[in-house]
Design brief:
The structure holds two protein chains of two kinds. By secondary structure, chain A is mostly helical. In chain A, about 55% of the residues lie in helices and about 0% in strands. Chain A has nine helices and no strands. Chain B has a domain of about 130 residues. In chain B, helix 6 runs antiparallel to helix 7, helix 7 crosses helix 8 and helix 9 packs antiparallel against helix 10. The chains are: A mainly alpha, B mainly alpha.
Chain lengths: ~280, ~280
């Protein structure tokens, strides 16, 4: 019988004091916030056998399945360990993602992979590409001689970019995780999300540069950024799975090509202006 | 009950307790010699934790008492009236209900009174959040009577204005703006909670919604003129104002080393909305 998750909940008031018979039904599970002494039907303040467990020692491993049971996935606080980063950590990780040639990103983030970076980099990218894509179209409209069509803000860019970036960063690491599991490679899903999320950071400055209405410049910038991003991803994946499977080269190449594809799609949809 | 130490009530409990107290004064029949002028018991869910076990002294029933940490719910109805104020204070209240006493009844007041009360509350909260006032330093005090009418109104107003002044895909503009603002407020609050901060969920939603007021004003002004330079100035001013309004609340909610992590997404939301206001035509 699974225990109770005790965030904010307090069952002890209803414990019959003289029960003693069935201890199994009254397993108090430790949580990140409240620290009850376990498995004592006599009440909370008597006989606390071990010191309250601190929240910090749950951060080295994901807390959801072991601690909360299956309903930990629905409890917001069970995701707290993945946001245990300071500003300086995030800045450092972002800086690491801009220099793709070291290949040790995954080891550096192995003990503390965070989901803050991936999520907010994706969200920033969504707004930035939508806004700057519209701005690029506006500039192109003004500098060209196409005075006939009235330029209007294209709100569809926001929803399509949301679908593209959230879908890419959300689903591709999931697929990769399953493929790696199938091949028997030990890897963590959150680490893959972390890696993919930070690899997208370089597209943010790229979007700013793609506003310039010169087509060749746009292609050059996007190609450089996509190349850097894909290299970062590929090198880190390579160091992560190289020793674990013979098919590593295929997987790494596949991810490289997909990242290049993302860059291409970004350029074609957001920063290419068609004059019909 | 006069000698227990209490951890002081949260500021937002005090207004509720005042209201309850007023109702008691009006509706309590002085049958039992009740010492209700002394300290009141706290309303049960709020956390004042009596340090000395009050309930066991009062009950004296001989049940083996583990003193439960949250204050005990009021004992059963026909408790002896020599009990402390707890039982006799709550049972008349339970019998008459809120607003059941003579002379004070929100059920039978005119509709305009009800509306006026809510509108006044919206204005009060607006003044506390968006305009300079002495409460700004204390974030929890600034919006202790949070409400969601104000944020709802501002979100709808912004979405309507932006969709009205759009020339294409008006329904999509409305839907996108509404979804981004409402989901954005929730996501921002969840972000603070996940970073280890401590805020009250709905209070945070309320503050984030009220801080949209400058942007709503800016959108209304930008609807008048299409000149991009004019709009840029207006958007810049209003985004700065919104960020200034929300900064004390968000930054006090998280530990110092993560302040930028909590503030940046708020800033992102307001800037992207400002850009939409700027570019809309």
């Amino acid at each position: 019988m699974s225990g109770y998750s005790t965030i904010g909940g307090d069952v002890s008031g209803s414990v019959p004091a003289a029960a003693g018979a069935d201890h199994v039904a009254l397993q108090f599970q430790d949580s990140n916030l409240q620290t009850f002494p376990p498995t004592d039907a006599r009440g909370k303040l008597t006989g606390s056998s071990k010191p309250p467990r601190d929240a910090d020692d749950t951060f080295s491993r994901p807390a959801e399945p072991e601690q909360f049971g299956w309903h930990g996935y629905f409890n917001l606080l069970s995701y707290r360990p993945y946001f245990n980063v300071d500003t300086s950590d995030v800045v450092q990780r972002v800086g690491d993602s801009l220099v793709p040639f070291k290949g040790d990103f995954v080891e550096k983030t192995a003990t503390n992979p965070d989901m803050y970076g991936p999520f907010w980099i994706c969200t920033t990218l969504i707004f930035v590409t939508a806004a700057l894509g519209n701005f690029a179209a506006y500039l192109a409209h003004k500098t060209s001689s196409a005075g006939d069509t009235h330029w209007h803000y294209d709100i569809n860019k926001v929803s399509w970019s949301a679908g593209l970036f959230y879908g890419y960063v959300g689903l591709l690491p999931l697929g990769l995780y399953f493929v790696l599991k199938y091949l028997g490679v030990a890897t963590g899903l959150v680490q893959l999300w972390c890696l993919y999320g930070y690899s997208l950071f370089i597209f943010i400055p790229t979007s700013f540069l793609s506003v310039v209405p010169v087509e060749k410049f746009k292609w050059a910038v996007v190609a450089a950024a996509a190349g850097l991003s894909a290299t970062f991803l590929a090198l880190n994946l390579r160091t992560h799975i190289k020793t674990a499977s013979e098919r590593w080269f295929l997987i790494v190449c596949g991810c490289f090509v997909l990242q290049l594809g993302l860059g291409l799609l970004m350029k074609l949809y957001f920063f290419t202006v068609q004059f019909s | 009950m006069a000698d227990i130490e209490k951890i002081p009530l949260h500021a937002s409990s005090q207004s509720d307790i005042d209201e309850i107290e007023n109702l008691f004064q009006i509706s309590v029949q002085p049958a039992a010699p009740v010492d209700s002028s002394s300290r009141r018991p706290p309303s049960p869910p709020r956390a004042t934790i009596p340090v000395t076990p009050v309930a066991s002294a009062a009950k004296s029933k001989g049940a083996p008492p583990p003193p439960p940490p949250p204050p005990p719910p009021p004992p059963s109805y026909p408790a002896a009236n020599l009990d402390a104020s707890s039982s006799s204070e709550t049972s008349p209240a339970m019998m008459t209900g809120f607003g059941g006493g003579p002379g004070y009844d929100t059920l039978t007041e005119p509709v305009w009174e009800t509306l006026k009360r809510d509108i006044n509350q919206v204005f009060e909260n607006l003044k506390n959040v968006v305009f300079p006032n002495p409460y700004r330093k204390d974030a929890g005090k600034a919006l202790k009577d949070w409400d969601l009418w104000g944020p709802f109104f501002f979100i709808i107003f912004l979405a309507t204005v932006l969709s009205y002044s759009a020339s294409a895909d008006r329904a999509k503009v409305f839907a996108t703006v509404f979804a981004v603002l409402s989901a954005g407020a929730v996501v921002l609050t969840v972000n603070v909670v996940l970073l280890g901060g401590s805020i009250i969920f709905f209070q945070s939603l309320s503050v984030l919604g009220y801080c949209l007021f400058p942007l709503a004003v800016g959108a209304a002004i930008c609807m008048v003129r299409d000149n991009k330079l004019f709009r840029s100035v207006v958007v810049l001013v209003t985004v700065a104002w919104s960020s200034w309004a929300v900064y004390p609340f968000m930054s006090s909610a998280v530990p110092g080393s993560r302040k930028a992590l909590a503030i940046y997404p708020v800033f992102l939301l307001y800037v992207s909305l400002g850009f939409l206001v700027l570019a809309n035509n």
